[in-house]
């Protein structure tokens, strides 16, 4: 049987629609004298992190969110960083705080994340927000998994009752993505580096979310025909950035597939803006 190629989930276009709505919400807030504000902390000069932060800053400007950037030397102490985050906690013109990860080894990531006021945690990494997600009462939800779910929903396919497989168990993507899918009544399997028969598990998936950080690790033989495939991977190889999914072969089998670049990346940034605007609305109440 000749299969029609998968439909593309255009994260870039979806993100633009969301940004247009956020621009209106930000304008409405400004009309009431409240300008959404985001404070971003970047420690060290990792080029990938610097690029992310630059993209975030530009995105904020494009929707009318004020953003301030704290670029700190790699030698900054944990106490100095904590004091700066505390200052942002107490700054009434800042509604969202983001500390770009990874942090240098001498800084305890957990101590920093727990310093951020839960109501300003636009990454959704604070234990209060992670706990809310686990309890089925999410407030700020991590940007990448939040965007992933919106991408799945954009296909029109219902998540309830479906078999969802998440490859990767990170705090930033895998675990929260699994919880969001569970909350929408999918039957969820989380796979990881020690999973037996990964291909078999993946082939069971109506919804396959891949966030393992391994270039092109998912091939066509691992995908159920017609499945929705979301590729969270962003791996630098000789030819540029590729995802965790072998797009060329998998797109011949899947029903829907998100590309890299132009898939999850733009949605993550749109969700950061959404979380910042939502935090502003909550603070204004
Ligand atoms: N580093 C890579 N992705 C992220 C993210 O979503 N948030 C933060 N704070 N750091 C990151």
List keywords for this structure.
single chain; 3-stranded parallel sheet; 6-stranded parallel sheet; 16% strand; alpha/beta; binds guanine; 285 residues
Question: What report would you give on this structure?
Answer:
Helices cover 41% and strands 16% of the residues. With 285 residues, the chain is α/β, with parallel strands linked by helices. The strands form 3 sheets. A 6-stranded parallel sheet has the order 1-11-8-7-5-6. Strands 3-2-4 form a 3-stranded parallel sheet, with helices on both faces. Strands 9-10 form a two-stranded antiparallel sheet. β5, α7 (174-183) and β6 (187-191) form a beta-alpha-beta unit. α6 packs across α10 (264-284). The longest helix is centred in the N-terminal third of the chain and has 21 residues, at 11-31. The radius of gyration is 19 Å and the shape is globular. The chain binds guanine.
Shape call: globular
Bound molecules: guanine
The oligomerization state is single chain
What is the number of strand segments? Answer: 11
> What percentage of amino acids are in beta strands?
15-25%
Measured between the Cα atoms of the first and last residue, the distance is 57 Å
Helical content, roughly?
Answer: 40-55%
Count of runs of 4 or more consecutive helical residues: 10
Strand order, main sheet: write it out.
1-11-8-7-5-6
Main beta sheet, described? 6 strands, parallel
Order of helices and strands: EHEHEHEHHHEHEHEEEEHEH
Output the radius of gyration: 19 Å
Low-confidence stretches: none
Summarize model confidence as the mean pLDDT. Answer: 97
Summing up helix and strand content along with how strands pair, one would put the structural category as alpha/beta
């Amino acid at each position: 049987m000749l299969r029609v190629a998968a439909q593309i989930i255009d994260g870039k276009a979806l993100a633009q629609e969301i940004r247009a709505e956020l621009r209106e919400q930000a304008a409405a807030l400004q009309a009431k004298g409240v300008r959404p504000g985001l404070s971003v902390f970047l420690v060290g000069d990792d080029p990938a992190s610097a690029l992310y932060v630059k993209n975030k800053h530009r995105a904020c400007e494009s929707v009318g969110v004020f953003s301030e950037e704290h670029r700190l030397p790699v030698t900054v102490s944990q106490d100095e960083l904590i004091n700066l985050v505390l200052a942002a906690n107490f700054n009434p013109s800042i509604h969202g705080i983001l500390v770009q990860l990874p942090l240098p080894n001498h800084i305890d990531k957990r101590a920093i994340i727990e310093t951020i006021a839960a109501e300003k945690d636009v990454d959704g990494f604070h234990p209060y927000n992670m706990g809310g997600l686990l309890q089925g009462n999410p407030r700020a939800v991590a940007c990448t998994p939040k965007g992933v779910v919106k991408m799945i929903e954009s296909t029109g396919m219902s998540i309830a009752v479906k078999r969802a497989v998440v490859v990767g168990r990170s705090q930033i993507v895998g675990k929260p993505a699994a919880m969001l899918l569970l909350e929408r009544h999918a039957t969820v399997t989380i796979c990881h580096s020690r999973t037996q028969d990964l291909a078999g598990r993946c082939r069971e998936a109506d919804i396959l979310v891949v966030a393992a950080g391994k270039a092109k690790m998912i091939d066509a033989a691992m995908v159920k025909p017609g499945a929705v495939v979301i590729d969270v991977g962003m791996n630098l190889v000789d030819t540029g950035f590729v995802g965790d999914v072998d797009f060329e072969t998998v797109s011949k089998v899947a029903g829907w597939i998100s590309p890299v670049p132009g898939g999850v990346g733009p949605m993550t940034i749109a969700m950061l803006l959404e979380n910042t605007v939502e935090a502003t609305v909550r603070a204004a109440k």
